[in-house]
Amino acid sequence: MTENPHDSAEQKKTEHPPGTSPRPAPRWSQPGASSARAYAPATVAVVCPSCGGPVEGELTCQFCGQVMVLPHGIHLSTVGLRFGGFLLENLLMICTLYIGWLIWAFCVFPRGQTPAKQLLHMRVIYIPEARAARWWRMFFREFIAKSIIGLLASFTLLIPYFWLLWDRNRQELWDKMATTLVVTDPDDRLRPPRPPSAASLPQ
User: Fold this and answer.
1) pLDDT average, residue stretch 80-88
2) What is the pTM of this model?
3) Could you please report the per-residue DSSP string of 171-186?
C-alpha cells in the first residue's frame, strides 16, 4: 500500500508541538453572546423544562423566560412588570419623602429586593451563585451602577434605559455591571433563609 501524500500534508497541518494539546475553541464564542450567558452550566438542558423550547448553551429560555440555573417555574420578569416596578418605585419615593423608601430598601436589600420589587414579588438574582443578591450587591446596583448609567444616559438620549428591550436575558446595563438578573418569585422560593436566632442555637 502506498502512502497518500495528501494524508501526510494534512497531518503536518494538525500537528502540535510535543507536550502540548490542541487549544479548544472558546465555549462562549457564539456571535452576540451576552455577559450573562457565560454563567450557563456546562450540563444545561437542551430543552426548556417549562415550554420545551431549545435552550442549549443559554442562561435563559428565549421563549418563556425560564432561568436555567434556577428552580423550575422561576422566570425572568417581563418588560411590562419591570416598567411597572420602575413607576411604583418612584411613586413610593415620593409618597415616603425618599427617607421612608430608603429605610425600607435597606431592610429588604438582603433579600435581593427593593420596596417596589417586594410588593410586585420580584427578586434580583446574582448570576454566578444562582441566588438572591445580598445587601452590598443591591447597594452597588441601586446607587452606584444606576448613577453611572444615568449619567451615561443623559448624553445618549436615554437609550441605555431601554437596554432590556433587546437584551437576550432582559438585563439593564446596571444588571450587567452587577452581574444580576431580575426574576418573578411570587411564592418567595428564592428568599434567603433567615439566620438562626440565639434562642434556637444548641446550648
Assistant:
1) 97
2) 0.78
3) --HHHHHHTEEEEE-T
